[in-house]
């Protein structure tokens, strides 16, 4: 067993997410193996109450530091890290001029492998311990990302990008060697990769239609059939990010009642289906999200950068569908969960065409940890693994934060009168400098991944 003494943040799953944080100013976190040997939280609480139960246990004392659950990025593009910060006139020109040319390079296994190493190290350096990530339409990119995640024992979900039309030829799925066409081959490759990686250690597979306009009806139908055959696998895609895209999707699938409904019509909405953006929705779309158990990945820095629009929190709450936060790098402007949480606050405040509200700091933090885990179906329900929290039984992924990381942060956090003020100061002023250490749960023994 291994134990840490520091300030501690976790979330009460039974509480209102707006005020669900449980905070110990002087806490103890005890880690150890579960029955399968995976490293999980064994005990957590106030130091004074817990310490007497563990005489002789080696405790690492970290005064002035805050231990919090590792962050979860619900939507990030592994092959787009190198095009972050590319100027463009909205989504479609941004894809054409910057993103598609870079994604073509991932056909090379060697390029994919090198990029996967950098990508995951960058996520960990920023405190992200779980990610649902897009790869490219090249199987090599998926293999490389899974292999790099396995080497780090990181909880990572990805899958082969399905796109058999409306993109440069080098990015489309390819025909198979035995005469199978590109659509059929993309589904065969998806199932092969799924069988190889789904549930292997902490890896999960996501059936990944890029978005409806780049997928033929046959490809979406095949993806839906895969999703029905493998209910434990995830589904990831994009929906309702901006008006041009919505109009394009509607013109391609006029028989569906909305862009979102297109996915439902092909069997692609269910629990563990995650749709990025979900901005331009009506009440029927929101009801469909709720009824199917699908979740939204909110991408505030990307939406602000590309001018896509503002997610409507009040209407989402009313409809009761699940959601959590995501960087959407490279459309997003930072891998940092702090930047994403601040972006979400700004998006929440906007009151043009929707209700503007002030998301509480606890709610923002929850959306990037315990709330994101709930949206992904990784919050421990039905015996499934739990991440994004530090309750007994949760996988022991956590970050060690330094609230004094910069001169201004030290001054501001010293004046924090309560937990919300402390968390909000970190959200507004924080970045990778705050993340002193990211620790990933190990099946044998925990090895800290140092931010170097
Ligand atoms: Zn995206």
Short description:
Helices cover 36% and strands 22% of the residues.
SSE blueprint:
Layout: E1 2-11, E2 21-33, E3 39-46, H1 47-50, E4 59-69, E5 71-77, H2 91-103, H3 109-125, E6 128-134, H4 139-152, E7 155-158, E8 161-162, H5 182-197, E9 203-209, H6 217-229, E10 234-239, H7 243-252, H8 259-265, E11 273-277, H9 283-292, E12 295-298, H10 300-306, H11 313-319, E13 322-325, H12 337-349, H13 361-367, H14 370-376, E14 398-401, H15 407-414, H16 419-429, E15 435-439, E16 448-449
Parallel strand pairs: 1-4, 5-6, 6-7, 7-9, 8-9, 9-10, 10-11, 11-12, 12-13
Antiparallel strand pairs: 1-2, 2-3, 4-14, 14-15, 15-16
The chain binds zinc ion.
Zinc ion binds next to strand 5.
Give a verbal description of the structure:
Strands 5, 6, 7, 8, 9, 10, 11, 12 and 13 form a nine-stranded parallel beta sheet that branches. The longest helix is centred in the N-terminal third of the chain and has 17 residues, at 109-125. The protein is globular and about 65 Å long. It starts with a strand and ends with a strand. The model is unreliable at 444-452 (pLDDT under 50). The chain is of the alpha/beta class. It is built from 16 helices and 16 strands. Bound molecules: zinc ion. Zinc ion binds next to strand 5.
């Amino acid at each position: 067993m291994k134990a840490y003494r520091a300030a501690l943040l976790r979330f009460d799953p039974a509480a209102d997410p707006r005020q669900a944080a449980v905070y110990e100013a002087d806490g103890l976190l005890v880690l150890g193996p579960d029955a399968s040997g995976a490293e999980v939280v064994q005990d957590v609480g106030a130091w004074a109450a817990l310490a007497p139960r563990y005489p002789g246990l080696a405790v690492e004392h970290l005064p002035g530091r805050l231990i919090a659950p590792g962050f979860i990025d619900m939507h990030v593009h592994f092959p787009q890290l190198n095009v972050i910060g590319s100027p463009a006139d909205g989504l479609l020109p941004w894809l054409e001029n910057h993103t598609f040319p870079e994604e073509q390079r991932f056909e090379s296994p060697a390029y994919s492998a090198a990029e996967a190493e950098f990508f995951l190290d960058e996520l960990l350096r920023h405190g992200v311990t779980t990610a649902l990530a897009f790869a490219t339409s090249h199987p090599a990119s998926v293999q490389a990302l899974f292999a790099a995640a396995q080497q780090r024992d990181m909880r990572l979900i990805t899958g082969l990008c399905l796109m058999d039309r409306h993109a440069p030829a080098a990015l489309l799925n390819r025909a198979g060697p035995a005469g199978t066409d590109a659509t059929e081959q993309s589904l065969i490759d998806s199932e092969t990769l799924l069988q190889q990686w789904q549930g292997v250690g902490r890896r999960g597979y996501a059936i990944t239609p890029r978005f409806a306009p780049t997928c033929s009806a046959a490809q979406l139908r095949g993806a839906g059939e895969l999703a029905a055959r493998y209910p434990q696998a995830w589904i990831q895609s994009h929906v309702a990010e901006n008006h041009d895209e919505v109009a394009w999707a509607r013109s391609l699938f006029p028989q569906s009642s909305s862009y979102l409904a297109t996915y439902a019509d092909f069997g692609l909405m269910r629990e563990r289906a995650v749709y990025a953006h979900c901005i331009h929705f009506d009440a029927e779309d929101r009801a469909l999200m709720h009824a199917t158990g699908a979740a939204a990945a909110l991408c505030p820095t990307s939406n602000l950068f590309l001018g896509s629009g503002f997610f409507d929190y009040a209407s989402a709450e009313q409809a009761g569908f699940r959601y959590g936060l995501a960087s959407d790098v490279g459309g997003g402007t930072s891998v940092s969960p702090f930047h994403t949480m601040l972006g979400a606050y700004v998006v929440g405040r906007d009151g043009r065409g929707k209700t503007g509200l002030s998301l509480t700091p606890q709610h923002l933090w929850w959306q990037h940890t315990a709330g994101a885990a709930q949206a992904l179906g990784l919050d421990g329900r039905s015996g499934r693994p739990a991440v994004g929290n530090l309750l007994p039984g949760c996988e022991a992924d956590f970050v060690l934060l330094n609230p004094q990381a910069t001169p201004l942060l030290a001054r501001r956090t010293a004046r924090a009168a309560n937990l919300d003020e402390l968390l909000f100061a970190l959200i507004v002023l924080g970045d990778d400098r705050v993340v002193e250490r990211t620790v990933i749960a190990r099946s044998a023994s925990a090895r800290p991944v140092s931010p170097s």
